Amino acid sequence: MRVYRVNDDWLSRLDGDVRNDTINMLRGLGLDRLQKYPPPKIGGLPFGNETRILGRYLKGRSSQLDPSALSRFYRSFASDDDKLKYRAFRQSDRLTREEWAAIIGAENIDKWVENKLLRAMPEGLFVCGFSIAVLDGLLFMVDPFNDHGGPHHETIMLDEEYGEKDVGGDIQPFHHAYMGQDSLQMIEIMERNELPKGGRYLDCGPGAGGLLLYFSRNFDEAIGIDINERAAKLAEINAELNGLTNVKTHVDDAINLNGRYGKFDLISWNLPFLYLPDEWEDNAIDAFGGDMGIGLCMRFIDTVPELLTETGTTCIAAMSPCMKTGENVLEERLKAKLPKLKLDCTLRIAQVSFAHTRDIWHFHQKAGIRKFEAVYLYMTHGMGKIRRIEPTAARKAVDVLREKMYQRKFA
Ligand SMILES: C[S@@+](CC[C@H](N)C(=O)[O-])C[C@H]1O[C@@H](n2cnc3c(N)ncnc32)[C@H](O)[C@@H]1O
Description:
Layout (H helix, E strand, L loop, with lengths): L2 E3 L10 H12 L22 H10 L11 H5 L4 H10 L5 E2 H8 L4 H6 L3 E4 L3 E4 L2 E5 L2 E5 L28 E3 L7 H11 L8 E5 L5 H7 L4 E6 L2 H13 L5 E5 L12 E7 L24 H13 E16 L5 H13 L1 E11 L4 H9 L2 E13 L4 E4 L3 H18 L1
Parallel strand pairs: 8-9, 8-11, 9-10, 11-12, 13-15
Antiparallel strand pairs: 1-7, 2-4, 3-4, 5-6, 12-14, 13-14
Helix pairs in contact: 7-8, 10-11
Bound molecules: S-adenosylmethionine.
């Protein structure tokens, strides 16, 4: 089990004056300018979603979660001030005292160190305890990203020698508060649809608050429910950072809401959807999808009818296992379930997906899984109708190539 020392957590310090001062400081730094710079592509295949990223760059929109082979090239156009801020808040670089002074003021450095917002490193350098992501002008504090190929930055997680036996008092199970490329992709895909506006919005598992804050701007009231206490707190802080007063978060199990929070016009969940070995369950609550990666998804769907207003819509991100036999497991299970729940469902297939590590790739192969389909499920009250929207022909052609490349890489 991953553990951390609560008192060393930058997030545990963000209350009262420290919270207000930090929020005011971050609001004044002009960090929204960083949003158009994509991180580098360091895992998987050498190129990322380059046309999408170029399109966003030209419009000044956010690509901060979308890795690009041309990351350095894009960043070469940033001002010196923005380059320094990118290194400080997005790349988790170790900076000198002078460099930090230029960003937050010399008088604040020791305060930030005391409050774990900065960590003192060897050779007089300092590294930020958190990262900043910017989406559509919204600022998000998040646990440090580790996507620039540097040393491991999950700074508050303790070494492996600590474990379950040490849990108690200041040492607690650690779950990071998440935001990633899949968060950005889900926002983009949801936006393509006509979504309800006004009324009440529920985002399950908000993590750092990506979807919750983004779509909260269309609603009178927005609620985030996360089982991870750190995530619920961070999403609330991020709502405050962006002046969104209609957002509330709660620590709760989204599978068992039993009407406690009422009904909603829009519900979203970028679900934990990976098919991982059982021993990962406790450590990867933001990723572990249960049975075939869709166990949690199927259990949540059971609760949708009682959460949804009469005209409401639910959007769920899932990963559907496609077996070597040709069976599409998620679709087969939905066919059996939806008529009983009186829900209609549109499945929008985004692309195929594969494990990013050899071990997990073989774990999937052993289970008879050929590939996964990244899919978005839109559900409304209905009679159990299912409609499938295929990806474009170009996307399908790229996916055939990707399947071959992953096979060559891992088989
Ligand atoms: C893939 S992350 C998505 C985070 C965020 N929505 C985003 O897209 O950036 C899944 C989230 O679901 C949360 N989660 C997992 N199981 C949950 C449960 N039973 N109830 C509520 N939240 C849960 C995790 O803590 C995590 O924050």
